[in-house]
Every structure is written in structure tokens, then in C-alpha cells.
Amino acid sequence: MFGISKQAYYKRIKTQKVREEKHEIVLNEVTSIRKRLTQTGTRKLYEHLRPALAFHQIKMGRDALFDLLRFNQLLIRRTKRFHFTTDSNHMYYTSPNLVKNLEINHAEQVFVNDITYVKTDNGHAYLSLVTDAYSKKIMGWSLDDNMKVSMVKEALIMANRNRIHNTPTVIHHSDRGKQYCCPDYTEFAGKLNFLMSTTQNSDPYENAIAERINGILKYEFGLRKTLPSVDIARKIVRQAVDIYNNERLHWSLDLKTPQYVHEKYNKQKYKSYARMAA
């Protein structure tokens, strides 16, 4: 048969069949992972796949996985992330930036706060997020069809309720949006033992963690799509936050989840999202 023995021919066919069966197992695992983590790239996928590869005794490196995904058109395209919702045109007092040059070394030391938009069939809704700067865990959130102070209060109440460590105070870091700077909110946060801190200019990198988390929720969990209603958007956000906190691996956390790092309090070396100075 074209210069090879019958035995070698059938051995080659069998080897090819085994390879295809293994590839099918891997692709099924990828499909399963991406049902919940829809925009997970190849390197993180490989970490998620390790247990399944070991279980099925499949030897596959990261480059081979990349080639398999590319062949099956399953690679993820990168997208731009920033969109601004900050209204800093107000006369309220803005707190100093307490986070600049601060060494962040444990969970519940700094909470970063931000508002982003979510499109619905009835117009824009707004999502308030409170994220732990150290663990990247989303501690609290609230979504409504307006950007009133009550929305950001609800997110902060949830964040405060989800604290698990006995830190006496937490730095509350945000941009200079009027919701965060008005006396109604700052006095409320103060009663919960938060120390107010605000960015000092409009550069999104001053609040880089919040901007990064906004982008992850939108581009990896479907929140950039136009959703039918605010109620459905809330359900999607609730599920997204749960998956983000407990399943999504972060390069900044050495491929651990926010929940795992948060529970360990101070065992993770902190890595900032902020742009390095030139």
C-alpha cells in the first residue's frame, strides 16, 4: 500500500483514530468550560483542562491545545474595554487618593468602587460594583435603571455584609463621580467604617482594578449585549459574579480564583493592574 506494509498502514489508521478521539474529548471539555466562562482564552483553558487531561491520560501541551483550538476556530479575539460613566462635574468635596503608593498586602484593605452601564431593550441600566483590590473578588453589586445614590449604597451594604476578616477599617476608593462624593453617601460609608479615597484626575488607570473588572463582566460574561430587561440583567449579573468569584482564574492571582485568594487573606503576592510609569 503505497510503499508501506499492511500492518504499518492499519497501525497508522488506529493511531489517527485514537488522536481524533482524544481531540474530541478535549473539545467537549472546552465546550463545557466555555458554557460558563465564555471568553476564556487558551492559557487559562489549559489550566482548567489539566484535571480532565490527567483523568483521560491525554498528553497535550499548551501549544498543541492552541493549534487544536485554532483549527476548530475556537480562539478568542481581543476587544477594547473602556467606556466612561463618571459624572465628576460637581462641587462636592473629593477625598485625597489614599491608594496611590499604598502597599496593598491583604484582603479587605481596599475596596474599589465603580459604575458601568448595561444596555437593555428599555434603555441603559447601571451596575455599581465593589471589588476587593487585593483578591479581585467582587464583594457587592447593585443594578438599576438610574445612577442614584441609593444604588451605590446597596452595593456597599452587600460588600460590607460579605466581609469575612476582622479589619477595623477599609479604604473605599472610587473615581470622582458625584454619587461617591455627595455627603449622603460619604456619611453613610463613614458609619460603616470606610475611609474615603478618590482619584485625582480622569485617567482610568487611577482606578484600574474597577475598570478591569467592568471589562471582564462585559466581554466575558455577556453584559455588553442588549438584554431584555433590568430584571433579567440582574439575574445574569448574579450568575456572572458567582462564576467570576469562584471559577474564573486570574493571571494577577497566579491562576487562582478571587474567592480562594480572599479566604487566604494575605498569602498572595499583590499585582496591580495599573499602568507602569514610563
**Corresponding CATH architecture of the largest domain:** 2-Layer Sandwich
Order of helices and strands: HHHEEEHEHHEHHH
For the record, the count of structural domains works out to 2
CATH topology of the largest domain: Nucleotidyltransferase, domain 5
Secondary structure class reads: alpha/beta
Our estimate of the beta-strand percent is 5-15%
Question: Average pLDDT across residues?
Answer: 82
Radius of gyration: 23 Å
- The CATH class assignment of the largest domain is Alpha Beta
Instruction: Count the beta strands.
Output: 5
Which strand order spans the largest sheet, edge to edge or round the barrel? 3-2-1-4-5
Unreliable parts: 81-88
- Approximate helicity band: 40-55%
Shape by Cα distribution: elongated
| Count of helical regions | 9
CATH superfamily of the largest domain: Ribonuclease H-like superfamily/Ribonuclease H
- Describe the largest sheet: 5 strands, mixed
